[in-house]
Amino acid sequence: MIGRISAVASNTFREAIRDKVLLTLLVFGVLVMGSAKVIQPLALGEESKVVKDLGLASITLFCVLIAVLVGGRLVYKEVEKRTIYIVLAKPVRRWEFVLGKYAGLMAVLLASLVIMTVGFYLILFATGIDAPAYMLWSLLMTYFELVVVTAVAVLFSTFVTPIASAVFTFATYVVGHLTRDLRLLAAMSPSPIVKGGSQFLYYVLPNLSNFNIRGEVVHNALLNPQALALSAMYAVVYAATLLLISVFIFSRKDF
Question: How many other CB atoms sit within 10 Å of the CB of residue 93?
Fold first, then answer.
């Protein structure tokens, strides 16, 4: 079982690494972080904080774009190219195929995160800004955020086209950072429809704002280890739930 999942994951990793979209986003992400050199003189005494916040935000954004654009095509393109018939003709179960695709993309995102993190730290050293290891906590939580976003992308990839999957996944990512506002809207709105709809979205959509600790890290604020652990557990449970739904949808497809 593990061997078959690993084989699918390895193949997914190799395919994604050769993907021009991935390479383009990685290069563009490093260039955006490099723009810190231009922004630094305009920061009016807050150079260090502005550059760090920009760099961490850029890493998160471009990793999310990789998850959205690459993940949205993971399953669909196998069906479109009919390579799925070759894979399923082998002793590979459908749930192993879905989990392998997910694991492969998570490996790609880990590699991308590491590459951009190294580039970011090099930029900090080049600009004379202190680069504490404390910032790595923010990047760790970014990875757990990607655990959820990638699961969303894989879910949509099982039943819609790549373009629709990318749109739906990115919309989920954006709204996922506004779930606290949805709860506030539900509490303030006099309309039972708006209240019910807001509460439904609040409990169904992922609460991605839990993973955003850039402000605390940039300002060297103390982090709550218990809150970080709960956020990590939330990511694992939420992603596992989405993957179960993905497996269910994929298993019912007629190939």
Answer: 14
In a domain, 100, yes or no: yes
Let me know if residue 146 belongs to a domain.
yes
Q: Are 13 and 107 in contact (CB under 8 A)?
A: yes
Q: How many CB atoms lie within 10 A of CB 225?
A: 9
Digit-coded pLDDT (tens) for 183-229: 776 667 677 776 777 777 777 889 998 899 988 888 888 889 999 99
Total domains, the chain: 1
pTM > 0.70: yes
Which one, of 132, 115, 119, 116, lies nearest residue 48 by Cα?
132
- Phi and psi based region of residue 90 (left: phi greater than 0; alpha: psi -120 to 50; beta: remaining): beta
* Three-class secondary structure of residue 131 per DSSP: coil
Domain span at 224: 2-177+212-251
Q: Which residues contact 235 (CB under 8 A, 6 or more apart)?
A: 144, 145, 147, 148, 211
